[in-house]
Design a protein that fits this description.
This protein has about 400 residues and is α/β, with parallel strands linked by helices. The protein is built from 13 helices and 13 strands. Strands 1, 2, 3, 4, 5, 6, 7 and 8 form an 8-stranded mixed β-sheet that branches. Strands 12-9-13 form a 3-stranded antiparallel β-sheet. Strands 10-11 form a two-stranded antiparallel ribbon. The longest helix has 15 residues. Keywords: Methyltransferase, Transferase.
Length: about 400
């Protein structure tokens, strides 16, 4: 198991992620979302993909409390909301009109705080317009939400301080930034030790050719800026994060014949990953854990990622990396950790963990899960390319 921040010996280094025309790309993306896209009928691809996992009751109820205009002006589908958020400070990258921020506001409570940052000024204005409404709706003495007009790769310029957030979320916006490394570096900087980046985005099955990377419509449709999926692991660990943990994945299909020609053999997937920033401590040991069921909305079962599901009261063996994540993050209080006794292995005897096949490839997960047919539904949570699009 590799240490956090270590790509491993002989690992392939990613190409420079920043295209030479970053400013032009940024301008085109702003224009696409601010002027071109009005409704879902304007979409040229079926890149709006949501996971089949149902939304917990407490999140559905939180969404119902959001102001109608905020919901109508929110051009996204699906949700990217992790678990265990009480009292957390959360940063939403590409927050749009603020729907998710106002839902999160209720989940973190008055002692927590939610900050939304978006590059589209009109969307930020809609979000700010309803601050007082939601404060009164939620019964708070003061608002616990802040909205900023800015760029997700320039969080310092937006005034966001070092180690100021417990969780950063993002719903299909990192692909819109040419320099993914800069985004990850900024997120790493603003996260506290033990903090998490929980995000959905679009990934490519290969390194994109110039014809795709420079295509204006494909950039706006979340495909032109898609990262080659293997590069995420390299960039994440180069930044200092632990290896990415795959949560869900769905294959993206293209509706436009001309765009199909441009894309050729390249495939795209919408996937959710977890990236943890752990403190610089000694290596954790493989151990057994028991989930105590204390997380709101996940009392009986916590689906942590594609490889580990923890049922209340059930003993589960975890590897060194998973043990380190659980022990050094906000999840620590919800687990009992039991050391594994040092015993000599016997012939033909192996642990359940040793026989477990760990899935890291989002395309493999999408195919094995049978999620080959993309969906766009308001009652599904997770992956979604379409943060700025209406469903």
């Amino acid at each position: 198991m590799r240490a956090c921040g270590d790509p491993g010996p002989g690992a392939r280094r990613p190409r420079d992620m920043a295209a030479p025309c970053d400013a032009e790309i940024q301008k085109n993306v702003q224009s696409y979302y601010g002027q071109v896209l009005k409704t879902s009928a304007d979409l040229q691809t079926n890149a709006c993909v949501t996971a089949a996992r149902p939304v917990p009751k407490h999140i559905r109820e939180a969404l119902q409390n959001v102001h109608e205009e905020v919901t109508l002006r929110y051009y996204g589908c699906g949700l990217v909301i992790p678990e265990c958020l009480e009292n957390c400070w959360i940063l939403d990258l590409g927050s749009g009109s603020g729907r998710d921020c106002y839902a999160l506001s209720q989940l973190v409570g008055e002692k927590g705080h939610v900050t939304g940052i978006d590059m589209t000024q009109g969307q930020v204005e809609v979000a700010k317009k309803h601050l007082d409404y939601h404060m009164e709706k939620f019964g708070f003495q003061e608002s616990n939400v802040t909205f900023i007009n800015g760029f997700i790769e320039k969080l310092a310029e937006a005034g966001i301080q070092d180690k100021s957030y417990d969780v950063v979320i993002s719903n299909c916006v990192i692909n819109l930034v040419p320099d993914k490394q800069q985004v990850l570096q900024e997120v790493y900087r603003v996260l506290k030790d033990g903090g998490e980046l929980y995000f959905s985005d679009v990934y490519a099955s290969l390194e994109l050719p110039e014809e795709i990377k420079t295509h204006k419509v494909l950039w706006g449709e979340c495909l032109g800026g898609a990262l080659y999926w293997k590069d995420l692991d390299i960039l994440a660990q180069k930044t200092g994060f632990c290896p990415p943990r795959l949560v869900t994945a769905n294959i993206i299909t293209i509706r436009n014949k001309e765009l199909e020609r441009v894309i050729g053999d390249c495939r795209f997937v919408s996937a959710t990953f977890r990236l943890f920033k752990l403190p610089k401590t000694g290596p954790a040991k493989r151990c057994q854990v028991v989930y105590n069921g204390g997380i709101t909305g996940h009392e009986k079962e916590l689906i942590f990622d594609a490889n580990f599901t923890f049922k209340q009261g059930e003993l589960v063996e975890v590897d060194e990396e998973t043990a380190a994540v659980l022990k050094n993050s906000r999840f620590a209080q919800d687990f009992l950790f039991i050391p594994i006794e040092e015993t000599l292995p016997t012939p033909g005897n192996c642990s359940a963990l040793e026989s477990k096949v760990i899935i890291t490839d989002p395309f493999k997960l999408a195919e094995e899960s049978g999620n080959m047919k993309p969906r766009c539904a308001s009652d599904a949570a997770g992956d979604c390319c379409g943060k700025k699009k209406s469903c």
